[in-house]
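Bench notes, afternoon.
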Amino acid sequence: MLRIRQHFPDRAVKDIPATVAAELRRADFASKLKPGSRVAIGVGSRGIANIAMIARAVVDYWKAAGMNPFIFPAMGSHGAASPEGQAMVLGKYKITEETMGCPIVSQLEVVSLGETPEGITAYLDKAAFESDGVMLIGRVKWHTDFEGPIESGLYKMMAIGLGKFAGAQYYHTFAYNIGLGAMIRAVGRKVLGSGKILGGLAILEDANHTTAQLTAVPVETMEAQEEELLRLVKSWQGHVPVKELDILILDEIGKDISGAGMDTKVANRGVLGEYNLWKGAPKFHRIFIRDLTKNTYGSAVGMGMADVINSRILPQIDWAPTQINSLTASSPQAIRIPVYFDTDRECLERFMPTVGKHDLSKVTIGRIRNTLCLTEVELSENMRAEIEANPNLTIVEGPYDFPIDASGNMTTLGGGDGH
């Protein structure tokens, strides 16, 4: 094996609080309200870099403008679709009343905003509806389930997030028939038409998964601006730096990594099990998942996209949130249990002969910690020519023997205990 470092441009925002404050002052959202107004700030459940710092800066903006802000979880079925669970999810990201300096209001009641032209009833969190205005904090990025001009971002938050569990279930049923992209756009337009939305703060992350851009998005231009921001962030997307692999190893998956457990456009799988669905991404013939992240809290959404898993995953699964999230999203395939074995060695030895190569020394293997961590990867030495032809790659270590210890399990990238 060879340990490889992949070099991505550093686009990190240097002073996040100052940048948030400047963007919100430029957009002048506060001019829409009278001093003393209650402002509902929607925050989601994804593992967004610096989310607590960003949210606190938004709270501080509204306080400085003389308003009374509160934060509410803009989530569908996450946190096991309970008020306590959704507040806990925010707490894990250090978003609490103490750290934010404002109330956290977590509840599941919704208010109907009427129907879209497609016949979809739009819903809004009741606490947010009863406020004087709603502001969204959301990351704009590609979605794990589909491709389109608008994917994951402020529009999706207005649908799945602001609609809470009731809306998420209802919307996904429509999406099954008309497509997620069409559903998100239709519901987003209806929510904007309610007059309750003050604007949004769009977060863009680079391939190093640092905060690369913060943009205040006014309601009047939100649809067009989100399309523009999505095109930009897609141009920054990172990939496993090869054209094709026989076996891709993921050390871990989890809801803190992606809504689908793994970024499907990095792993090139569809949530319904489709192989190599996404054009332009590397091809992977087999995927091996070794473990769940600690911060997925038992949710095993995404394991159904693997071909083989280590059995250590099974006793960690909390089936309540796993089933709720998967069934709400109409993707039961994503939680099927793949073939499993008790050691990493057996998982590999049993699957290497399934890729159509009689000479197993020609099987190409790549390994990443998870689909967020693409700076450092392991690749089998039989890919050296492709590696050396890529100016963005540096061989840091190797070749060395495949990193498996006496128990038959892998050690961490570059050596050490994998657990």
